């Protein structure tokens, strides 16, 4: 009797999924999460389901979420195999590979919506907020999360609020990135056949708060970019106005290395000032990635002379770091004064 009932329910589900709309899909996710929170799970016959899934898959929703082991989408929405198309990556970020998977599910599997799901206590967002030295691969994740973090930091000084607000803003950013980098998703959405939603999963309660993201793509003409541009222009103007009394590093060599500074005798004086015993230089940043160090150095070269990169091999890890320096200065005070002037 139970098998017969499940077979009937399965046939009804298959018929229903064929007519699912984006709004239906949202309701199914919300109802599934309510079952998960209440632990009133629906009955599942995995053996029977497997035999049906040999014929193919018809997921009604795509869920892009974090790789965090505490965020299992099928459990959170009380679904069995074949019902939701899940993509997991740290920080639930969107890149070309992720977007290709989303487009496949939307166009070829007829999934009705994309849910970009962030979660409380996200380690990827937390790491981006706190900053530090990142390798190439983790750095690529941080690079995609950074726009959300920078936007929140610019508006909030309360450290207790920055991470949770950045988690939500990151969902906004990734949702917009998915839509505006895919003609397929844009067309399906314009035809009313597809919807993009955001969500935040609470590890503490198990609840998912689903919302409609703004889907606004940050561009160079956005208020954020314009504000940044104005700040740069303001600093450059102030720099020109004060150039007559600001300490300057001496002229650099043609190859960008600081003239006369002996890197073989390099010695640390303070956290930012170094000396070769005769001259002094200022360290502005340190990177594991040479290309990143070059990128930063080039930005400083547009403003100052004497910018150079000094490779440094860590005695413990034996890894090479690339230190971006400005110099040289004839006295320690001159270097410290210069450091204060560019802060």
Would you write up a description of this structure?
This protein has a 5-stranded mixed sheet with strand order 2-1-3-4-5, sandwiched between helices. Strands 6-7-8-10-9 form a 5-stranded antiparallel sheet. It has 12 helices and 10 strands. It has 2 domains: 2-211, Beta-carbonic Anhydrase, Chain A (3-Layer(aba) Sandwich); 246-342, Alpha-Beta Plaits (2-Layer Sandwich), CATH 3.30.70. Helix content is 46%, strand content 17%. It has helices at residues 2-17, 22-38, 46-53, 73-76, 96-107, 123-130, 136-155, 159-180, 183-190, 223-241, 290-301, 332-342, and strands at residues 61-65, 84-88, 113-119, 195-201, 208-211, 267-268, 273-275, 280-287, 307-313, 320-329. Mean pLDDT is 83; it is low at 1-17, 220-230 and 242-259. By secondary structure, it is of the alpha/beta class. The termini are far apart.
Strand content: 15-25%
- Number of helices, counting only DSSP H or I runs of 4 residues or more: 12
* Mean of residue pLDDT values: 83
Number of domains: 2
What's this model, at a glance?
By secondary structure, the protein is an alpha/beta fold. The chain is built from twelve helices and ten strands. It is 46% helix and 17% strand.
